Amino acid sequence: MKFDIQPASNPTSEKDRIAKLVDPGFGRVFTDHMAIVRYNQAKSGWYEARIEARANFQLDPAGAVLHYAQEIFEGLKAYKRDDGGVNLFRPDANARRFKDSADRMAMAQLPEDVFIEAVEQVVRIDRAWMPGGEGSLYLRPFMIASETFLGVKPSSEYIFAVIASPVGSYFKGGPAPVSIWVSENYTRAAIGGTGAVKCGGNYAASLRAQAEAIQHGCDQVVFLDAVERRYIEELGGMNIFFVFDDGSLSTPPLGTILPGITRDSIITLARDAGKTVREEPYSLEQWRKDAASGKLKEAFACGTAAVISPIGKVRSVSGDFEISGGAAGPVAMGLRKQLVDIQYGRTNDPHNWIRKV
Ligand code: PLP
Ligand code: COI
């Protein structure tokens, strides 16, 4: 699909851009452009692919997304290499997951090559917004149902867009260990639900539990399974791993959790290093016992935004516990370095995960 490229007529000045890049935080600073592709069933599919100035959408108050939340999104990052080039990390995997999300939400499926082209075009036009150092350009492709209609049915019109946000660390403390709150009141996903896809509704439903986590002084919430309310599933916006005294790792199995691309990359890197990685259920009760006995050495959260963040402290209604005295563990930090080095192009990329832009 050919994108019509119309650069912003009034882009941010260099001085303002540099000031905004000093300490961008996460998701508050945005670049000058966006990609847009529209879909209309009656016009036989995707049309009008554009790169244009970032601007408000025009949406009728009866636009389907505003009522029934037919919305999906992705998150991936572009990294500045030392030679000045830019790396994308596994954008093909995001494009595939976006299609799976669209399928589950009865939305139009965007061809994977159009997804990747849109992301690359935004990176190209806004590459001056790439932060230096350990920062990156967070890319947020998303799709909304835009048909003007109040009946409950899949929309026949969609808007796909990609926006970009220069980011630093997701957590204020960078890779310092985070604390998590176990949600025993709320669940995130049930079998047959939407837990395995990246739709906005999953995040809306997680906010009450995340607020509870913050009330308890924690950085993030971790959810239990919806059936037995025993097994650890994932955090509000991250997957989770456990590291044991025999050197093995485990992570909750796929099904009701988001199939994280970072999760998959960590499984691959750990297995490459000869480690055993199990994808199996792990209960809160067992976690508490293993932390107390020393069998559990580390736990860490992982995701595009969070990279790899060690978990130091766990709080719950049934009591709090620490993992390895609340300190960052060597396995989490080693995997983090390995992953980040691949992302920034500082080391070999044995699995061809990097796409240069
Ligand atoms: N789980 C949830 C609920 C998420 O929102 C994310 C972030 O995208 C992840 C896991 C990690 O996925 P990924 O590694 O693909 O970013
Ligand atoms: C990501 O890591 O890309 C996420 O989507 C997590 C969160 C920022 C929603």
TrEMBL record:
It holds the Pfam family Aminotran_4. It is an enzyme of class 2 (transferase). It catalyses: L-isoleucine + 2-oxoglutarate = (S)-3-methyl-2-oxopentanoate + L-glutamate; L-leucine + 2-oxoglutarate = 4-methyl-2-oxopentanoate + L-glutamate; L-valine + 2-oxoglutarate = 3-methyl-2-oxobutanoate + L-glutamate. Pathway: Amino-acid biosynthesis; L-leucine biosynthesis; L-leucine from 3-methyl-2-oxobutanoate: step 4/4; Amino-acid biosynthesis; L-isoleucine biosynthesis; L-isoleucine from 2-oxobutanoate: step 4/4; Amino-acid biosynthesis; L-valine biosynthesis; L-valine from pyruvate: step 4/4. Its cofactor is pyridoxal 5'-phosphate. InterPro entries: Aminotrans_IV, Aminotrans_IV_CS, Aminotransferase-like, B_amino_transII, BCAT-like_C, BCAT-like_N, BCAT_family. Keywords: Amino-acid biosynthesis, Aminotransferase, Branched-chain amino acid biosynthesis, Pyridoxal phosphate, Transferase. Transmembrane segments: none annotated. Its EC number is 2.6.1.42. The keyword Amino-acid biosynthesis applies. One of its GO terms (molecular function) is branched-chain-amino-acid transaminase activity. Belongs to the class-IV pyridoxal-phosphate-dependent aminotransferase family. PANTHER family: BRANCHED-CHAIN-AMINO-ACID AMINOTRANSFERASE (PTHR11825:SF44), SUBGROUP IIII AMINOTRANSFERASE (PTHR11825). Acts on leucine, isoleucine and valine. This is Branched-chain-amino-acid aminotransferase.
